[in-house]
Amino acid sequence: MRFVRQSPRHDGDNNLISLINVVFLILVFFMLMGRIAPHDILDIDSPASASTQAVEPENVTILIGADGRIAVDFTIVTRASLGASLRRKFEAGISGDTPGVTIRADGKIQVKQLNDTLDTLRALGTGKITLATDRTR
Amino acid sequence: MQIDRTRPARPGISLTPLIDVVFILLLFFMLASDLHRINALPLTASATTTGLPGPESALFLRVHRDGSFSLTDERLDKATLGHRIRSYLDHDPKRAVVVQADEDASLQSLVDALDQLTASGVVKLTLAQR
């Protein structure tokens, strides 16, 4: 008996087209769903909440880590200098009215730290304060 | 002079470089994008007033350090709080609720309390300040 080993027909890269389709779909998914953002300076596990309200992206963000460290946007500040650096941020803003503030605090911090931060914000006269929460847990 | 007009057969475009580029793009978007959605809980000035509000009819909810709550001296947990609040709201839907958290309570337990109250339909919600 004779086996004829036929060399596979080289029809270009036709068998790769389905792979490309899938990869393009994954690419489109990540491009649409993802939000390209720099990583937060502190590792924060926001408290879980059923709230579905969206965060205003132009807000100034105050980060409070579980270890008590505080950051304004991307700079670590001390508790004492928080007010001063926030005021600098507000003055650097384009519009005349004070921008909103988003507090991204870890769920494990004590309420005292939140209250201290709120006191600082109240002294600055900021009206719009939101607390970032996480819906996934 | 005779010019050889016969063109060489054009090879088909190879897909491999395209796949390379697409994979690199895919890798970039997978690593750089943040699929995590954060939501917001408003703590605006209207909801956060200094001092306790006037009406003595307001319900006073205290958040303890162990994550339990007490509503006007009645000890409650996360499961029973919503039920109890709703029974109060049935009598007076506009009843105000003041939330006071212990200084050493965790932020998560305060957010839990605010969540439960909002889900139960409390409209006048106040976070008490020192």
What structural keywords apply?
heterodimer, A: 137 residues, alpha/beta, five-stranded mixed beta sheet, 3 helices, 6 strands, B: 130 residues, 35% helix
Report the strand count of chain B: 6
Q: In angstroms, what separates the terminal alpha carbons of chain A?
A: 66 Å
Uncertain runs of chain A: none
Number of strands of chain A: 6
Describe this structure in words.
Chain A is of the alpha/beta class. Chain A is 31% helix and 18% strand. Chain A has helices at 17-33, 82-92, 111-124; strands spanning 53-54, 60-64, 70-72, 75-77, 101-105, 129-134. A five-stranded mixed beta sheet of chain A has the order 4-3-2-5-6, covered by helices on one side. In chain A, helix 2 packs across helix 3. The longest helix of chain A is centred in the first third of the chain and has 17 residues, at 17-33. The mean pLDDT of chain A is 80. Chain B has three helices and six strands. Chain B has helices at 16-32, 78-91, 107-120, and strands at residues 38-42, 59-63, 69-71, 74-76, 96-101, 124-127. In chain B, strands 4-3-2-5-6 form a five-stranded mixed beta sheet. In chain B, helix 2 packs parallel to helix 3. In chain B, 21% of the residues are buried. Mean pLDDT of chain B is 78; it is low at 45-51. Classes of the chains: A alpha/beta (137), B alpha/beta (130). Strand 1 (53-54) of chain A pairs antiparallel with strand 1 (38-42) of chain B, so a sheet runs across the interface.
Task: Annotate the secondary structure layout.
The complex is a heterodimer of chains A (137) and B (130).
Chain A: H1 17-33, E1 53-54, E2 60-64, E3 70-72, E4 75-77, H2 82-92, E5 101-105, H3 111-124, E6 129-134
Parallel strand pairs in A: 2-5, 5-6
Antiparallel strand pairs in A: 2-3, 3-4
Helix pairs in contact in A: 2-3
Chain B: H1 16-32, E1 38-42, E2 59-63, E3 69-71, E4 74-76, H2 78-91, E5 96-101, H3 107-120, E6 124-127
Parallel strand pairs in B: 2-5, 5-6
Antiparallel strand pairs in B: 2-3, 3-4
